[in-house]
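Friendly challenge for the regulars: who can give me the structure tokens for this chain first? No prize, just bragging rights.
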Amino acid sequence: NHVLLMGSSFYCFLLYVPILVLLVRRKTRGLKWVIGISLALWVLTFLWAGHLKANYVEKLTAEYDRAIQVNPQDASAYVSRGHAFVEVAYFDQAIADFSKALEIIGDKPEGYYDRGVAYLRKGDFVNAAADLNKAIQLAPEAGQSYGARAMLYYYGKDYAKSREDARRPRI
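First reply, four minutes later:
Bragging rights claimed.
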């Protein structure tokens, strides 16, 4: 994905140079063609990147899907698939998987942390705060929950609380 995006961005950049040259020379006759080609390449790049991402997610989650089919009570398969979904920004699917894992394993701080981070990355700060606070309540010594909550406070512009959580030692 990244190589494709970089390569296409490079070609778009190469087309911007003639646009600048035409603008500097005040020749507009060929300008619309160069701009049109450049924009078309840019759109195709992002369409292709979306296609590659969808295929990547399908391949990434296939193993976890099979594990869940074999043993629907395997919480680790839901957690692993949830992490895969977070990696590609499919936050709703990740939250559903983390919720299912919490149903299976009960009140474990790791489950609330994982779901809280997914909510945080999604931008759902209310649910993120609830899950991260629950993770801290269950395991006050776990520094990663404080780190995530520090980010939550930072996004909410509560810098004093963010600094306080960020300074807690990580164990």
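The chain has eight helices and no strands. Residues 1-8 have pLDDT under 50 and may be disordered. Your move, everyone else.
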